[in-house]
Every structure is written in structure tokens, then in C-alpha cells.
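A quick aside before the break. I want you to see a complete sequence-to-structure record at least once, exactly as it would be stored in a machine-readable document. Don't worry about memorizing anything.
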Amino acid sequence: MLELRSMTVQTYFYLEMKYRLAIVLTVMLTKSYFQWNSENSI
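That is the input. The structure line, written in C-alpha cells, reads:
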């Protein structure tokens, strides 16, 4: 039972890490896209 719990915790942290990384990448891409868009539109 204890092994199963530690595995679940590891999986949760792994998924959370990937999720946060995806959010950070999306935010960075969106920011750079809007910056590039505003620079080119002028």
C-alpha cells in the first residue's frame, strides 16, 4: 500500500511538472508572438 502511494505521488509531481512547463511555454510563446505582432504592424 505504501509503495502504491509513493508511486501515485511521483506520478502526480511528474504530471504537475509537465503541466507547469507547458503553461510557461505557452505564456512565453504568446508574449513573444504579440510582441512580434505589434512590432511588425507599425
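Two observations worth writing down. The chain has a mean pLDDT of 91. The longest helix spans residues 2-41. We'll return to this after the break.
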